[in-house]
Automatic annotation (TrEMBL), chains A, B:
One of its GO terms (biological process) is methylation. Gene3D superfamilies: 1.20.58.1390, Vaccinia Virus protein VP39 (3.40.50.150), Winged helix-like DNA-binding domain superfamily/Winged helix DNA-binding domain (1.10.10.10). Residues 176-329 form the O-methyltransferase C-terminal domain. This is SAM-dependent methyltransferase.
Length: 354, 354
């Protein structure tokens, strides 16, 4: 929005925001009733009459949804012949867009109504529509469908793309012992074991998560190389053990507030030696190649507020660097947008001046 | 959306649709927590630190909502100084935009989730979140707040602007007897009585509506000039009486499906003489001066689907003219966008060739 808008343009943009939820739901209906797919199959266009004759949807519904889709640029209508636009095609076929749409509709839509409340209370008040948990993490394995599938699709999409490139960066100095802090189901640890035959891993996480990670490690026959350390990083009494070559935090710190991040990084600081490298992998919203990605990440911040925990968010790269510094580390190298992903890696060492 | 978008632009536009509801709710929070108003008062900009110090909202919430607002062009942030944009100003101060936002949030947001269902069933399935009525019309007087206020603000805003100019058009030929079909609370009839000292009016509507209209007419001392005719226009047995100089239908036909409109207009046809004029006042979505207005009217169609009655919509001017013709009338004059309103008037007479 760099150029100056006229009043007429600004008023139009304001209405797009005002009726955003209505048109969003009209796109869901257009897709779920098979209308968008049918139109997409007719690349040269298809008449509204043919759509009405072919699909088992009322003439009223078809006309209504096509008019709505035309207004937001998802379809083009000329002489009662309808074509899909590029925007419509992305909504129908692009993986990122599909995943975002389903995440919005199945996980976040109803809960988003509680945004003001969530900010006032500092709690994810929208989560109540899915279940009675203090944060979404307690409920992940028992989320109702389709929320569960849409949540995991979203999580998966925004994390796995970074791993191949990240492995190259982390193993540049052949670490022997890696602490996977917030290791969750163990995906990163298993990738490390596959990448390097000698590395040993310690997964640090809450007991409930470690149960899942241990189960997965058992199935993969990796219990001789991976061990587990139960820890609640919000409890300052509980210390990360000494001795790792690498401390790894992958999409972990965005689950916490700024104050909590400093506390966690200070805990890492007391565990680190002069030769320990701390790697922070995050999708920083201000460090993206495409506006679509920045848009998605800021929306993800809002998800944290209403559904996840009420107090975390995606961070800008500058804010994270400040928090790193405040904790006694310094960023010695930044690897922006590694591989085919939205993530950057901050490589950190203990500051010499602390 | 006339110009051809690049893939990157189209993907961005698709994400705007995908996260429309999330950003909508972030704007609601930004407004309801007083942040938008505070920023608006500082036209030259205000630092985020000052906002955090002044307002009783968490630093987390303020940063989050400002980041979200910047992404959608509601605020501009430069060197941690925030300014409101034109879009933000419209959201905060423009009457149409405010009314649309509140209508979306208070009346339609939760119900919109049921759009696919509403189309499949041909019923306003979203209405259930407000109350247990077959259509919203049965529930209007007992809607829960804030839905009730937002509904009436919306209805009021989109109808009253047309009346002054409409009176001039209708009274050009000094009608003695006007039938106000679907007269609702009587607002148009009272305006007619104020405009012309001699005109007599018959309000035709459902008994429950006539009760309100009669009460209002009594209070205004107009019972000697206005009478009432109870009629259910969806019942083909019930006929509009003969004899009016003018049959007036103001924002009435958009409450019905195309088939029902033809049925109602045929009923008007049997009541009309060669000298009767039928006036249809409607906001046609394809006949608007500004894209913001077209956008709002198409969104209103979607409201009819999910919340109002499940089968009506705003019409294009061509479709309405076809329905007029099919019913035995012809449009002898079109008055586009009369006065300071979104409405056009179709002046119709019985066709000579029927």
């Amino acid at each position: 929005m760099k150029k100056e808008l006229s009043a007429i343009e600004a008023k139009y943009e304001a209405q797009k925001i005002a009726f955003g939820p209505m048109f969003f739901q009209s796109v869901i209906a257009l897709r779920d009733l098979g209308i968008l797919e049918f139109i997409n199959k007719h690349r040269k266009g298809v008449s509204i009459d043919t759509i009405v004759e072919t699909l088992d949807v009322s003439e009223y519904g078809i006309n209504l949804l096509i008019e709505a889709a035309a207004v937001i640029g998802v379809l083009e209508v000329e002489n009662k012949v309808v074509k899909i636009t590029k925007i419509g095609f992305f909504l129908l076929k692009d993986e990122m867009t599909r995943i975002n749409v389903n995440f919005m509709n199945d996980v976040c839509y109803m809960g988003a109504k509680a945004m003001t409340d969530s900010i006032v209370k500092g709690k994810p008040e929208g989560l109540k529509v899915l279940g009675d948990w203090p944060t979404i993490y307690e409920g992940l394995s028992i989320l109702p469908e389709p929320a569960k599938k849409s949540w995991f699709d979203f999580d998966h999409y925004y994390s796995d793309g970074a791993f191949p490139e990240a492995l190259k960066i982390v193993f540049r100095n052949q670490p022997k012992l890696i602490f996977d802090v917030g290791g969750n189901t163990g995906k990163w640890s298993f990738a490390c074991c596959a990448h390097d035959a000698d590395v040993r891993i310690k997964i640090l996480d809450l007991p409930v998560q470690l149960k899942v990670a241990r189960q997965n490690a058992t199935e993969k026959g990796l219990l001789d190389r991976i061990d587990f350390h139960a820890i609640d990083l919000l409890n300052t009494e509980q210390k990360i053990p000494q001795g790792p070559d690498v401390i790894w935090m992958s999409q972990f710190l965005d689950c916490f507030s700024k104050e909590e991040i400093v506390q966690i990084l200070k805990n890492a600081y007391q565990a680190a030696s002069e030769t320990t490298t701390l790697y922070i992998l995050e999708p920083f919203f201000d460090n993206q190649a495409y506006p679509a990605a920045e848009y998605s990440l800021v929306a993800t911040s809002l998800y944290f507020t209403i559904m996840a925990n009420g107090n975390s968010k995606m961070y800008s790269i500058d804010v994270m660097k400040e928090l790193v510094k405040e904790s006694g580390f310094e960023v010695v190298e930044t690897y922006p947008l590694i591989g085919d992903s939205y993530h950057s890696i901050l490589e950190c060492r203990k500051r010499a001046d602390v």
